[in-house]
Amino acid sequence: MTRQVVRFDYWLDPAFDRIVGEATDVMLHTCQRGGADGEAWDRLSEAHVYQITAAKDELPRRWFVTTELLARCPNLLAVSSSGSGCDTIDIDACTAAGVAVMNQAGGNADSVAEMAFGLMLAVMRRIPESDRRMKTHTTGSREDLMGHELRGRTLGVVGVGHAGSRAAALGRAFGMRVIGYDPYLDSAEMAKRGAEHVSFDELLRTSDIVSLHCPRDASTLGMVNAAAFAAMRRGSIFVSTARGGIHDEAALYAALSSGHLAGAGLDVWDQEPPPPGHPLLTLDNVVATFHTAGVTHDARRRNATLAATQILALLTTGERPKRLVNPEVWPRVRQRMEAALLVTAS
Questions:
Q1: At what angle do helices 109-124 and 162-173 cross, to 10 degrees?
Q2: What percent of the chain has pLDDT over 90?
Q3: Which one is catalytic: 249, 272, 278, 323?
Q4: Is the pLDDT of residue 234 over 80?
Q5: Active-site pick, 291, 302, 334, 336
Q6: Counting CB atoms within 10 angstroms of each CB, which of 52, 79, 198, 247 has the fewest?
Q7: What angle do CA 256, 116, 60 make, to 5 degrees?
Q8: What is the pLDDT of residues 93-148, one digit of tens each?
Q9: In this structure, are residues 191 and 197 in contact, taking their beta carbons and an 8 Å threshold?
């Protein structure tokens, strides 16, 4: 039986199409995001795996994995995110429908952690401001552009998973004290990942730099709100390479414009890209990037390879995905696979 894999025409590293395309008895279909909905629904209705972008603003909402979409895809066994996030996937709906959700956790951890430190350095050392002044010949005195070192500062990492652990390692390499908050880790595991285990409140109170690396879900949406920014040390820095919506943008603007926070490095936004005239983009002490922390040639190729190989292992040998987001669904997925594909799942 030919296994059907469907994706849309957002940019994906060529490694994905090459690996899946070379597999025996696996057919890959690339659908248009707009203009050919009938054909896309026909393909999805027959799909065994749906490869979907992790970025919420790259895909029309009708192609998000929802209860409604799942009802039109009776053969679907698994949904594969292009990254570690699942913003385009209703995980609970997939579990209820007996559909596995796979991500590529860890594939872009180095890229994300490096970007977080790039933002920290850009804010602390005022690199963008110096660049602007050099190019407009308004440099003045070098002392007008003095910044601060990372060494000796306290870095607070919120979410100490793949990227957070890598950020902790980089912090130690810079000579920083690293503390971490993650509700899923105990003190021993946190120590293995390179951070001192603290509460969220203590992290806010004691960090010179707060860096977000947690997933966007019901427990984290709006977590860094006005009260959280007020609890941060005066003169501290806020950095996020996580997801938009975890921090309150209006509250951050207020904390920055009042002088309570010294600066921010932001890679993620409620709306991506943020609209022209967004208040945070008007502040000189904000370094802004376009959700590019995980977007390097290296990370995109690695994630595409991870996704393709994980999909093929599932479809051809019945292997349990190594990066299964909803593990409780696996017994049901295994039964569905054996019935639909005549594959004995492990």
A1: 50
A2: 94
A3: 272
A4: yes
A5: 291
A6: 198
A7: 85
A8: 999 999 999 999 999 999 999 999 999 999 999 999 999 999 999 988 999 999 99
A9: yes
Q: Exposed, middle or buried, 314 (CB in 10 Å: 0-12/13-18/19+)?
A: buried
- Which position among 193, 243, 300, 336 bears the catalytic label? 243
In which element (H, E) is residue 286 found?
strand 286-288
| Cα-based torsion angle of the residue sequence 131, 133, 139, 144 in order, rounded to the nearest 10 degrees | -80
Distance CA 321, CA 101 (A): 9
30-34 long-range contacts, CB within 8 A, separation 24+: 30/6, 31/6, 31/7, 32/8, 33/8, 33/9, 33/59, 33/60, 33/63, 34/60
Cα(146)–Cα(64) distance, integer angstroms: 47
Q: How many CB atoms lie within 10 A of CB 52?
A: 24
Structure tokens at 325: 């987001």
133, 187 contact by CB (below 8 A): no
Q: What is the mean pLDDT of residues 82-88?
A: 93
Spatial separation of the C-alpha atoms in residues 14 and 19, rounded to whole Å: 9
Closest CA to 313 of 52, 17, 7, 3: 3
Closest CA to 197 of 223, 225, 168, 176: 168
Cβ atoms within 10 Å of 280's Cβ, excluding its own: 17
Please give the span between the terminal C-alpha atoms of the chain, in angstroms, as a whole number: 19
Contact between 261 and 255 under an 8 Å Cβ cutoff? The reply is: yes
| 272 is known as an active-site residue | yes
The secondary structure of 62-82 as a DSSP string is GGSB-HHHHHT-TT--EEEES
pTM metric for this prediction: 0.91
Handedness of CA 173, 179, 184, 187 (dihedral sign): positive
